[in-house]
Amino acid sequence: MALNMANQLCISADSHVVESAEFFEPLRKRFGDRAPHVETDPQLGPRLNLGDGRMGLSIAGFLQQNVDFTSPEARETAKLGYGLARPGCYDTKERLNEQALDGIDAEVLYPSVLFNVYQVEDLDIVKATFSLYNDWITSYCNEQPERLFSLGCVQLFDLDEAIAEMERCKQMGAVGMCIPATAPPDHLYSDPWYDRFWAAAQDMQLPLNMHIFTGATANHGLAPRQASSKANGPMGFAGAGMTICDLIQSGVVERFPDLKFVITEFETGWIAHVLKRLDWAFVRGGGLRTSGLSMLPSAYWRRNFSITFEDDPLGIMTRSFIGTETMLWGNDYPHGDSVFPHSQQVLSEILSDCTDEERYQMTVSNVVKLYNLPFELGGASQARINSIPTPEKKTWRNALPLPEVELATPLR
Which residues face 9 on adjacent strands? Predict the structure, then answer.
């Protein structure tokens, strides 16, 4: 790809498309009601039926920004579903306008509605769904090839077909591949059975992306809980943490030193603690003598992993443990958790204590290097955020719907 030299850049490493209801129609023609398809609930609006009666996330949740989802207004507008979509969700020319509104120059794109398809039991349906998506997202990004970059999706039950689909995506221009954030509990990623897939991804130089809500089983592999418990939502990172531990402690990243994993939208404040615990277990357990590893677990993290964040001040406060070279900022457009269209304000506030070089890493250079994006890197002055003054008063979290937010996660 040709290199573009931009005076200033800000790149989102975690943005989304929102697959339309019509996207699923070819699958329904082929598989009938067993295929994933969108159904409308009179109270909740449209949702994805996985084809077996299990329901995915509300479509409105992918499209309502900066709202209290429990408010009467939000509950009412949720019924609109796709009617809430911003123009850029489906029109790439409009998407460039929305990039400009948010002060960003390029996006790495994940799916949305497909998150739960990894849990569909009929493998033929899963394969067909991801193949259809990979064709669709390629066409979408090809309309703006210097601004939109696709990630393919692949299942990990039939490795021969998974490798073939990954190669097909690579040839179509994908910069990475989405896989489940948590493996089936009876077939964890620590199993050497996956090695030939890891080897193929390493050879193709395709990072493997693990997004929140994409576990092979429900609740990110965490144990089912009573209906009264709401712990699985905020604790989803615990499942991702187990995946990271398995990949490091079992020797996967020892055997595949150039393999890259991207932990996406679980935020970052928990990573420092996980790395501290991993290193301490390594030392107390005999270290190099007994582990089969040649480095501290945290060293594998810095070599083989990246992680995205939106507006997590705790991750920034512990960046010396996490490694700023592993951290990728993303705006999460157009989801309900998105910081769009306030990204520059958010970045100016949460990165205020960072050096110019750190801000450059997290908003420009890390994502360009990881995905080999067609931008010529020009140093810290190239980061747009380094030209934006740090505000005297930080107001981002105070601007969110609930006044309790400032108390829950204060900003320094």
Answer: 383
Torsions phi, psi of 150, nearest 5?
-90, 150
What is the total count of domains within the chain?
A: 1
The residues, ordered by sequence, that sit 6+ positions from 251 with a Cβ below 8 Å of its Cβ are 292, 293
Q: What is the pLDDT of residues 308-329, one digit of tens each?
A: 999 999 999 999 999 999 999 9
Q: Which of 58, 44, 68 is nearest to 213 (CA)?
A: 58
Assign residue 29 the CATH number of its domain: 3.20.20.140
pTM of the model: 0.94
The backbone torsions φ and ψ at residue 34, rounded to the nearest 5 degrees and listed phi first, read: -75, -15
pLDDT in tens, 49-101: 999 999 988 899 999 887 777 888 888 988 999 999 999 999 999 999 999 99
CA-to-CA distance for 153 and 19, rounded, in angstroms? 13
Give all strands (DSSP E) within 34-164, no chain letters. 37-41, 45-49, 55-58, 106-110, 148-153
**The two three-digit tokens of residue 186, written as one number:** 């009876």
Domain span at residue 381 reads 11-33+88-408
Give the Cα separation of 393 and 340 in Å (integer): 20
